[in-house]
Design a protein that fits this description.
This protein is of the alpha/beta class. It is built from five helices and five strands; from the N terminus they run βαβαβαβαβα. The protein has one domain: SPOUT methyltransferase, trefoil knot domain (Alpha/beta knot).
Length: 160
């Protein structure tokens, strides 16, 4: 299954970018043996529309342009379901085992995600009830992808 990380907003070069890249490189090296292939990060600029509703709608339209037919979509949203790392790994494995060719993990902009995406999403999860800057969410998503392959492969990285 090909996995794409979609993010509203750009990650500037610096320590956040380096850490995100490090986890995505680890995921790339470890995931292919398990049928989980990292394909790319898609960054789109934040909408400049006047209202938050229009901004979220425009950003959702950009995401939809990058979704292939039948792609699984996981939204990262503070109102999503809190799950632990083994459950996240199991979710990825389930989509893979169900024959999904593509999966997109989506990080919204400062205004959040368009409600219309909720009906399209296969899952909406959160990294806790706090609001996180998109730079940190990007790092956490990259780390959780890597952690998922270590869980699925029985590697000792995940010790819980």
């Amino acid at each position: 299954m090909r996995i794409t990380l979609f993010a509203v907003g750009r990650l500037k070069s610096g320590p956040e970018s380096e850490l995100s890249k490090r986890y995505l490189e680890r995921f790339t090296k470890s995931g292919s043996a398990l049928g989980l292939d990292f394909t790319r990060v898609i960054e789109v600029p934040e909408s400049r529309a006047a209202t938050h509703e229009v901004r979220k709608h425009e950003e959702a339209a950009q995401l939809e342009r990058h979704l292939s037919d039948g792609a699984a979509l996981i939204l990262l949203d503070e109102r999503g379901k809190m799950i632990d790392s083994p459950a996240f790994a199991a979710t990825l494995a389930r989509f893979r085992d169900d024959g999904r060719r593509d999966l997109v993990l989506a990080i919204g902009g400062p205004d959040g995600l368009d409600p219309a995406l909720q009906s399209r999403a296969d899952a909406t999860i959160c990294f806790g009830r706090m609001t996180w800057p998109h730079q940190l969410v990007r790092i956490m998503a990259a780390e959780q992808l890597y952690r998922a392959v270590t869980i699925l492969s029985g590697h000792p990285y995940h010790r819980a």
